[in-house]
Amino acid sequence: MANEFQPLQGMSDIYAPEIYLWRMMEERARAVFNAYGYDELRTPSLEKLSVFKRSIGDTTDVVKKEMYSFKPSKHELALRPEGTAGTIRHLAGRGEEGLNARVFYIAPMFRYERPQAGRKRQFHQVGVEATGEANPLADAECIAMQKNLLDAWGLTGSKIQISTRGEPSDRKPVAEGLRAALRPFENELCEDCQRRIDENVLRVIDCKNESCGKIVDQIPSAIEFMSPASRDYLDQVVEALSAMDIEVTVNPKLIRGLDYYVHTVWEISHSALGAQDALAGGGRYEIALGKKGIPGVGFAIGFERAIMALNACGITGEQFAPDGGIWLVSLGEAALKENMKLARELRAKGIRCGMELEAKSMKAQMRKASRSGANTVVIRGDEELEKGIAVVKDMAEGSQQEISLEEFVRDA
Ligand code: HAM
Question: Domains plus CATH for the chain?
Answer without folding.
Answer: 2-167+226-318 (3.30.930.10), 323-411 (3.40.50.800)
